[in-house]
Design brief:
CATH superfamily of the domain at 376-479: Tetratricopeptide repeat domain
Number of strands: 0
CATH class of the domain at 376-479: Mainly Alpha
Structural class: mainly alpha
CATH topology of the domain at 376-479: Serine Threonine Protein Phosphatase 5, Tetratricopeptide repeat
Radius of gyration: 29 Å
Order of helices and strands: HHHHHHHHHHHHHHHHHHHHHHHHHH
Strand content: under 5%
Number of helices: 26
Distance between the termini: 75 Å
């Protein structure tokens, strides 16, 4: 009854899920060891959340089996608190089955939180339990190298190297640290963020200098950015510091991207303007100003975006880049001009962009679709869109544009075929569904047309488009 009373009291301030975790913990007898009570605070969206709740349940006196601490560890990891996650996963390993995957997870969390001694213990436990992963060997090798036991380290690293890691032939700490960071980047690119974090921490331990520290910090920042933890990612990238070296430039550009995502466009543009002002390389300056233009464009600051793109164009010419890059920048400028309601200027800019990059499918599509949507130059637009589709047949925007051009030209059968293909590529796109409904209607397939219009109505957030669709559902298309 005491357990039940405690549960009822906690139920008033916690989630149903964590209550179930607690109940699951009571079904099995507690293991003999008495684990320590760990006190941590996890900020989750600025208030007490599921992670703190799970930890509260895991710390209750009667909760002494695998489920509570394991789920508390997962909550903590998802919240970005690897130290707490590591502490609870160690507990789960003590209470849980002899499982190499569980021990390896504990190893990853320990290494990722900087507790390399504990990571080495968990690596040995994983290997003893039958792990075939290269990561435990790599963790052991890195820790042993940092401790100065080079023979044992080389033996462990040799086992890791057989699994495809790109390790230097002579694994001196500085060379090995850089190799680990290179592999960490490869891990991150392939979506293996946990492994990337482990390797970055090992690199820090092997070569604690500023260069490795900055690279590792940027890498962890990217891990958080990829996971959608924008505020936390921003703090890591800001900790990298300024500078115009490769890591510093990347971190400043990443900060700007995150600031845009956080709705802080003015700060993002200021960050990029500062980078452009400091940069001596015109290519870096052009990239920063283009990124500033993108930040302004996605925020609806059309005229400011045009001005940034113009300055980026001057830097590009100074950098002596090829015509394709210049054409791509002019395309961005044209999009901003169109957004600002300056279509005549946008059209001329798009034509100029095509002279520089005549086979660019984005430019072909944008100009072709813009003409079709305005009822202009339909035959020429169709030819341009056919070239764009040939270059990028899996892009639903481009396939939809060609279908719409055929619709405007009165080729109902051709329009249906293209728009059905676009709908298969983007089944939840409101514009594509709306266009397909129009094509079905003209092809005499009225029931299918209304079905597509209803789908478009459900998927659209555009009030003007929804009003048009509602009118078509009532009245159909005019004859």
């Amino acid at each position: 009854m005491a357990a039940f009373g405690r549960l009822v009291g906690l139920f008033t301030v916690t989630s149903v899920l964590c209550a179930l975790i607690y109940w699951a913990s009571l079904w099995e007898p507690p293991p003999p060891p008495e684990p320590p009570v760990i006190t941590v605070t996890l900020p989750v969206n600025g208030h007490i959340g599921a992670a703190q709740t799970a930890i509260a349940f895991a710390n209750l006196p009667n909760v002494r089996n695998f489920a509570g601490p394991y789920l508390a560890a997962r909550f903590a990891q998802n919240a970005g608190d690897w130290a707490a996650a590591s502490a609870y996963m160690q507990w789960a390993v003590q209470a849980g089955p002899r499982d190499p995957a569980l021990a390896e997870h504990a190893m990853i969390l320990a290494a990722g939180s900087g507790s390399l001694d504990q990571a080495a213990r968990m690596a040995r436990k994983a290997l003893n339990a039958g792990s075939t992963s290269p990561l435990p060997h790599l963790v052991l090798g890195g820790v042993l190298m940092a401790e100065g036991d080079e023979d044992a380290a080389q033996a462990a690293l040799s086992s890791a190297g057989k699994s495809g890691f790109a390790l230097p032939k002579t694994a001196e700490p500085p060379d090995l640290a850089q190799a680990l960071l290179d592999n960490a980047g490869a891990f991150l690119s392939s979506g293996q963020s946990d492994g990337a974090r482990v390797l970055s921490q090992l690199a820090r331990a092997l070569e604690p200098g500023a260069a490795v520290e900055r690279q590792a910090t940027a890498l962890v920042g990217q891990i958080h950015a990829d996971a959608g933890r924008d505020d936390l990612a921003l703090s890591y990238f800001q900790a990298v510091g300024g500078g115009l070296d490769e890591v510093g430039t990347f971190a400043r550009q990443a900060c700007a991207d995150l600031l845009v995502r956080l709705g802080r466009t003015t700060e993002a543009v200021a960050t990029l303007e500062a980078l452009a002002a400091e940069a001596t390389d015109p290519a870096v300056r052009a990239h920063a100003l283009t990124q500033a233009g993108e930040a302004e464009r996605v925020s609806g600051r059309w005229d400011a975006a045009v001005a940034s793109y113009d300055r980026a164009g001057l830097a590009l010419r100074e950098a002596e880049v090829g015509p394709e890059a210049q054409g791509s920048l002019l395309f961005l400028r044209a999009v901003a001009l169109d957004g600002a309601g300056r279509w005549a200027e946008a059209e001329e800019t798009l034509k100029e962009a095509l002279t520089l990059a005549p086979d660019n499918p984005e430019i072909l599509n944008y100009l072709g679709y813009s003409w079709v949507d305005r009822g202009l130059h339909l035959d020429k637009a169709r030819a341009m869109l056919e070239r764009a589709v040939a270059a990028r047949p899996d892009d639903h925007h481009i396939v939809d544009s060609l279908g719409w051009a055929l619709f405007r030209l009165g080729d109902w059968a051709g329009a249906v075929a293209q728009l059905e293909e676009a709908a298969s590529l983007a089944p939840y796109n409101a514009v594509v569904a709306d266009h397909l409904g129009d094509a079905y209607w003209r092809a005499g397939r009225r029931a299918e047309a209304r079905f597509q219009w209803r789908r478009a109505l459900n998927y659209s957030d555009d009030e003007a488009l929804k009003a048009q669709i509602e009118s078509k559902l009532r009245l159909g298309l005019p004859e």
